[in-house]
Amino acid sequence: MSQTELITKNQELKTDLREIAQDIVRRAMAGGATDAECVVREGDEFSTLVRLGQVETLKEAGSRSIGVRIFHGQRSASTYSSDFSGDALDRMLKSALELARITSEDPFSGIPEASQLGSLAGDLDLYSADVYSLPGEERINYARRAEKAALDYDPRIKNSEGGSFDAATGHKVLANSHGFVGEYQRSYCSVAAVPIARSENGAMQRDYWFSVARNLGRLDSPEEVGKIAAQRTLRRLGGRKVKTAKVPVVLDPMVATSILGHIFEGINGDSVYRGASFLAGKLGEKIAGDHVTVIDDGTMVGGFGTSPFDGEGIPTRRTVAIEKGVLKSYLLNTYTAKKLGLQTTGNASRGLAGTPGIGPGNYFLEPGKKTPKEIIADIPEGLYVTEFLGHGANLVTGDYSRGASGLWISGGELTYPVEEITVAGNLKEMFFNISEIASDLEFRGAMACPTIRIDGLIVGGE
Amino acid sequence: MDKNRFFFQHYGLTEHDLERYLAAALSAGGEYADLYFEYLSSTSLMVDESMVKSASQGISAGCGVRVVVGERTGYAYTDDLSSERILHAARTAALIASGPSKTPVVGFQEKPTRSLYPVTLPSVDAEITAKVELVMRADASARAYDPRIKEVRASYSDELRNILVVGSDGTFAEDSQPLARMNVSCIAKTEGNSARGSSGGGGRVALDFFFGEKTPEYFAKESARQAILQLDAREAPAGEMEVVLGPGWPGVLLHEAVGHGLEADFNRKQTSAFAGLIGKRVASEKCTVVDNGTMPWRRGSLNVDDEGQPTQNTVLIENGILKGYLSDKLSSRLMGMADTGNGRRESYEHIPMPRMTNTYMLAGQDDPEDIIRSVKHGVYAVNFGGGQVDITSGKFVFSASEAYLIEDGRVTAPIKGATLIGNGPDVLTRVSMVGNDLKLDEGVGTCGKDGQAVPVGVGIPTLKVDRLTVGGTAKKDPGGFMQ
To answer: Is B305 among the domain residues?
Structure first.
């Protein structure tokens, strides 16, 4: 299958950027490259922040950039530019060709085979021009309404870091010397509120909530966002420390997603081939509890992690990474797949410069049946985590230690807020100790996880 | 000082153009406007499995236009430095205001500035083969350190940022800011056990820094040493205990616990746990903390900040008393305080805000060995990963990557990485001993705020904190309250 034209129902894209990308590839080849790949990105952004009812910032801009990766046999190098003038592009190509002389011969380097390249057909519903359809004053109003809903919710909320409305569109073109050229557009908009509550003793707490969508119609109302932000902030007031203890820990979806993120890092081909992950070499083995099934699916219509092709021009796909606790597949790009003697999973992520990395499609933990409330109801004493602080995960050893805050569970119910505590364990055991998975899966980004319960963690406090 | 007038030479800009752009920015009644021109060239190299697998170079350039009226900021940018596009950005940013047009002051004034990083040949323009030598030497040195070192990744990156800032108040400042760093990460493996180590450093230095002062071998050995040490690390304790922080990079404590909370924007908005505490005790009297942007060659230093203001050495805490905040133009105007030259931004695409430069605690009187000897049961933490703070609640964390137990006044076994958590406004009140051994970090810090990353430095002398919560997995005392 060497179908390399992007065909979608609502966007028959054939733009100038495509011509530029193809031209750069042709010129790189004419200049002596044995293979070449060019990426062009163009984007617009709008953002506004309203604080205490007044506009604080308004930002509006557009930009574009271009990057080229070239190969001299098994050597490669990359260059980029934000300047599209003839001189700048000449210089970009020239330095890429020069730079490729000083890198090492790497037998696994290269762009994908022509037969692997392609793009998903059909409308993936990734772009809607309506994110920019609101008139200026309405956009500001979205931000203002979100903040107002939070401020009006409770008299203890008197201050705020503001309400915001953001919109952006991005356009990406990829072309390579194996005949691939594809492009797609994506859009995004979001509304958020960050209220601050003050308790009687003067202690302050801050939290946030947001809604994000690819089109305006799917955004939650600013009032709903503000109300939830207020509730999340208020429930933190009066936080205290608890005694150091080993108790069941329940993670709300936002923080549970970070645990799923550690699984992603652990099965990322780049960590795997270097042995920088404790999950390296565990293909086919049990690495997590029986009910843990993790899927990466870059093809979901309208998804935040969806694209018709990955950063190397490979059509995206659905990969079952973990099935009932058994590691079924790593997540790979072309290079890491070759290193491991496997096939790419279409997870290449391409920045402007450097070698492609590995990124998620829509990556999630399959939901269970219970509600979060039912999961909490089973726990006599435990911790419900609503925020993690810091980055204390070591994928080489699995050691895990992070700052946390949340609510104490007592008698199966959420009771008082807790803060200035740590949660520690080892990811090797934590993945097995995911003892409950709730039904509340909701995508707010490319990664999503329902509420989960993990046993055996040490909560560090007094 | 030698004026390079980079943007005048390369883009044909004139003072007249700048005045025109500023006038357009103020055309809707803005009170203040500025333009930030940036031309950034960068190089990076990475060696993995003893092969140079990645080499890249690039250029990004653009101009950001800011218009301020009261507390409102309008911002627009362009990566096309033609008159037409800059004027378009200026008119877009102008719309934050609504009123009769204002006129920028006539005539730019350039203040004298320091020359903190006078490199003759910026590393970005140096021979690429010398940079390849650096990463290859780092790889060889780390592998030679111990046969258990199985994986090595060494990277080198540098950049040169040319900036020009002009403001409607007559501000005119340009700077040429070099930045370079090396990083080495290692994985050590034995039968059934693995561990990682990492080290790096640099600053606003030329390439010869890595051939003289701090060689690739220096970083490679340090990285390998940490990985080997971690192979034998035991579980870290959990709960509150005495913590001794080694000198240098553990200064990330200051950055998280107090630095962010003292940025003026948070205090203007009364969203920081430090709001309203000027003149109050926030640390033990042994603590004096400064933010100093004027240290030669350092990663966090700047001749002028990203609003064109010369940087300075600002006392934040003096003998335990809170003295001041870190401010930018907007905060200083709205709060009626001096501009400390801390207005920084990641790039022309970003709005400047108050940020740290090099934040450190001055040396005290105590002998570091006495500090260790004074601890019966605690943790000695000498190397850290990053940290994070919630400036509103004041809670902060920082993660130890190299730490040891202290038992009966002696440093004993290495322990696994653990997060330490505390409360910013009171952690320094628990500092009971301050060493005489102030050290700054090697030059690896990058600070993130509102999605903007900027290079910073930190430092402390050896410090003893009487009580801090350590997030380990081991019981604190046998027969304690663990279930």
So the answer is: yes
Written as six digits, the tokens of A110 are 């290269």
Closest CA to B398 of B427, B378, B372, B371: B427
pLDDT at A231: 98
Distances (CA, A) of A368 to A435, A451, B205: 11, 9, 55
Task: Evaluate whether A360 touches A447 at the Cβ level (below 8 Å).
Answer: yes
Interface test with B, best of A247, A422, A455 (most B CBs within 10 A): A422
Q: What is the pLDDT of residues B192-220, one digit of tens each?
A: 899 999 999 999 999 999 999 999 999 99
Nearest-angstrom CA–CA distance, B309 and B165 = 9
On the question of pLDDT at B71 being above 80, the answer is: yes
Tally A–B CB contacts below 8 A: 267
Option in A54, A60, A391 nearest B92 (CB): A60
Cβ under 8 Å to B: A residues 68-87: 76-83
CATH for A16-232 is 3.30.2290.10
Cβ-nearest to B393 among A205, A460, A461:
A205
Please provide the DSSP assignment of B422-469 as one string.
EEHHHHGGGEEEEBS--EE--S--EEEETTEEEE-EEEE--EEEEEEE
Whether B480 maps to a domain, the answer reads: no
Contact criterion met (CB < 8 Å) for A274 and B151: yes
Instruction: Please determine, for residue A14, whether its predicted confidence score (pLDDT) is greater than 80.
Output: no
User: Which element (helix H / strand E) includes B198?
Assistant: strand B193-203
* B376 and B352 co-located in one domain: yes
Judge whether B430 and B465 are in contact, CB under 8 Å: yes
Last residue within a domain, chosen from B212, B231, B250: B231
Q: Report DSSP letters for A255-290, one per residue.
A: HHHHHHHHHHHHHBHHHHHHT-STTTT-TTSB-S-T
Residue B407 within any structural domain of the chain: yes
Cα(B256)–Cα(B397) distance, rounded to whole angstroms?
7
What is the mean pLDDT of the segment spanning A264-273? 97
Of all residues in chain A, the one with the smallest CA distance to B467 is A462
Cβ within 8 Å of B, A 168-207: 196, 203-206
Q: What are phi and psi of A411, to 5 degrees?
A: 60, 35
Which CATH number does the domain housing residue B131 bear? 3.30.2290.10
Q: How many domains does chain B have?
A: 2
Asked if A277 has any chain B CB less than 8 Å from its own CB, the reply is: no
> What is the predicted pLDDT for the residue at B105?
81
- Do B289 and B330 fall within a single domain? yes
Rounded-to-integer distance, Cα B169 and Cα B25, Å = 13
Q: Is B478 a member of any domain?
A: no
Q: Does the complex come out with an ipTM higher than 0.85?
A: yes
Domain encompassing residue B109: 6-231
pTM of the model: 0.94
Collect all residues of chain B within an 8 Å Cβ-Cβ radius of residue A274.
Answer: 48-49, 151, 153, 187
Q: Which of B52, B385, B422 sits opposite A102 (nearest CB)?
A: B52
A142 burial (CB, 10 Å; 0-12 / 13-18 / 19+) is buried
What are the boundaries of each domain within chain A? 16-232, 238-258+367-460, 267-362
Distance from CA of A318 to the nearest CA of B (A): 29
Give the type of residue at A263: I
Does the structure show a pLDDT above 70 at A5? no
